[in-house]
Give the backbone structure.
Amino acid sequence: MRGIILAGGTGSRLWPITKGISKQLMPIFDKPMIYYPLSTLMMAGIREILIITSPEHADQFQALLGDGADLGLRLEYAVQPSPDGLAQAFIIGEEFIGDDSVALVLGDNIFHGAGLGTALQANATIDGALIFAYHVMDPGAYGVVEFDDEMRAVSIEEKPAAPKSNYAVPGLYFYDNSVIQIAKSITPSARGELEISAVNERYLSEGRLSVQMLDRGTAWLDTGTFASMMQASEYVRVIEERQGFKIGCIEEISWRAGWIDDDRVRRLADGLAKSGYGMYLSRLLGD
C-alpha cells in the first residue's frame, strides 16, 4: 500500500498568514502540521508516500522533509495547480500509485490514540474502500456515515440537517486500486470540485464501502481554523508535557518500526541539538 498526503489548497481561512506559507507547515505546538498526517501513514506501516502541495509551496516541503531516506521512507512530491477537490489526488498520483492500493490523509487532520497504529495496519490489504467513523456531538457539521452491524456503510451525507448517525467521517481513507478510475469517472460538483464524497458514494453503490470505528480514546483534530489550530497545539502540549512522549514524532516512529537504526537517530538528534525536539530524540537512545 502507498500513501498520499494532500497538503495543497490556498489556506484562505488562515489569511493573511498563509499568504506566505503553507498551512500544513505551520506549527502545531512543537512540530510542523505535516508531521502529524505523515506519522499517521507511517503508523499504518506505509513507507512510500506522495505529498501533494500547491505549486508555490512545493520547495518548502522538500526542504523540510527531503526524499525521506533519513527516515527510511521514500517521499515523492507533486503539485495540485488549483484546489479542484480531494479526489483529484488520485489522478495526480496515478503514476505514483501504480498497481497498489492507497491511503489518503488530509494534511490538516491529526489522529492520536493508543492502539491507533495497530488498528491502521490491519488495512494493509483492502478490497473496495474503507472510511472511518468518529463519534461527535454535532454531526450536522460534518460528513456523516450510517452503517450496519457488519460495518458496511448504508448511507453517507454531507452536513445533513437531520443526521442519521452521530458518526463523522474524518480525513483518512483507504482504497483499492480501482479508486484511480473512479476518480477519473466522476464529474465535478456544483462548486467545481472532484469530491471525495462522490468517490465514496460510488463504492457505496457497489456495496464495497466498509467502515471502521475509531476507538473512544482516539483523538481526531481538524486544524483548518485559527481556533482549531490553537486547540490542537494545546492538546499536543498537555499530552507531551504530562506523559513525556511526543505525538507525531516521525523519527521515533521510524526507529521503533526498525526502519532506521540508533546511529541514524543519533545523527538526526545532533542536527536538532539546540531544540527540545533534538534532546527528546537523544533521550530515546539513553544518550
Q: What stands out?
A: The chain has a mean pLDDT of 92.
